[in-house]
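Worked example 3 (structure in, sequence out).
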């Protein structure tokens, strides 16, 4: 694995067993994603984007092949180690925001810090500064149902970044937003990615989001069709 890569895939195959039928979601992927970039996985529906994000996010393991994330061979890690690795290093942003409805914006952002056992004082400082950074200092006490779609996604961005992860994975993060709000969210993610020097990896169909990519990996039928440094216009 090249030293500056955050993800390295070698001959990665993922096959699902669907009621006795084998579904080949990934068919031998080999590529590296450099650190601290705005990287995009692009491809039509069913091409394997979510499957790939699940492997990078250590939610699932490859059927065969090797996957290194932040320098660790995650395909070979045991369950306890992988849970710990994911809690410390990886954060997720989803298209449906996936916030806890009974928690305030503040509590949603603070939650990952509770999971990693951070002290109360440090949790408070980090949570407030992250809410400030995403422009939601005044909405800290509101619950998700009192927030707009764009504000919910801002909470999700703050929650993703608050633990200072190595990687933020985002599956179609603008899919449920109108195009103007989507653009504001893309610009916020880009700004935060640079400020926090974190690696962002997206799966998306959204041309607006794809046009902001620094690295683009086009996949079809679970294979890499093309890699471009810079956006696909
Ligand atoms: N749990 C599963 N069991 C069986 N087949 C699956 C499972 N998850 C995904 N697949 C299949 O694997 C292939 C890749 O799916 P995946 O969700 O990774 O694609 P995608 O590019 O993210 O699609 P979309 O853009 O529609 O979300 C598809 O053929 C899908 O039907």
């Amino acid at each position: 694995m090249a030293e500056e890569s955050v993800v390295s895939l070698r001959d990665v195959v993922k096959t699902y067993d669907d009621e006795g039928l084998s579904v080949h979601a990934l068919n031998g992927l080999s590529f590296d994603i450099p650190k601290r970039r705005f990287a995009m996985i692009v491809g039509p529906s069913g091409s394997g984007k979510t499957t790939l994000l699940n492997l990078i996010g250590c939610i699932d393991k490859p059927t065969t092949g090797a996957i290194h994330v932040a320098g660790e061979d995650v395909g070979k890690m045991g369950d306890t180690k992988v849970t710990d690795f994911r809690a410390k290093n990886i954060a997720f942003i989803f298209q449906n925001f996936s916030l806890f409805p009974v928690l305030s914006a503040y509590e949603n952002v603070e939650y990952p810090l509770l999971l990693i056992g951070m002290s109360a004082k440090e949790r408070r400082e980090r949570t407030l500064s992250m809410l400030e950074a995403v422009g939601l200092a005044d909405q800290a006490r509101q619950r998700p149902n009192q927030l707009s779609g764009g504000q919910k996604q801002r909470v999700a961005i703050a929650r993703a970044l608050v633990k200072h992860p190595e990687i933020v994975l985002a599956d179609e993060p603008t899919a449920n937003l109108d195009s103007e709000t989507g653009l504001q969210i893309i610009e916020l993610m880009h700004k935060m990615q640079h400020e926090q020097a974190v690696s962002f990896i997206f799966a998306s169909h959204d041309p607006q989001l794809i046009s902001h990519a620094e690295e683009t990996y086009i996949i079809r039928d679970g294979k890499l069709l093309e890699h471009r440094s810079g956006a696909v216009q």
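Notes: The domain at 36-61+77-229 is CATH 3.40.50.300 (Rossmann fold). The helical segments are 49-56, 79-89, 105-115, 120-133, 149-161, 179-196, 207-210.
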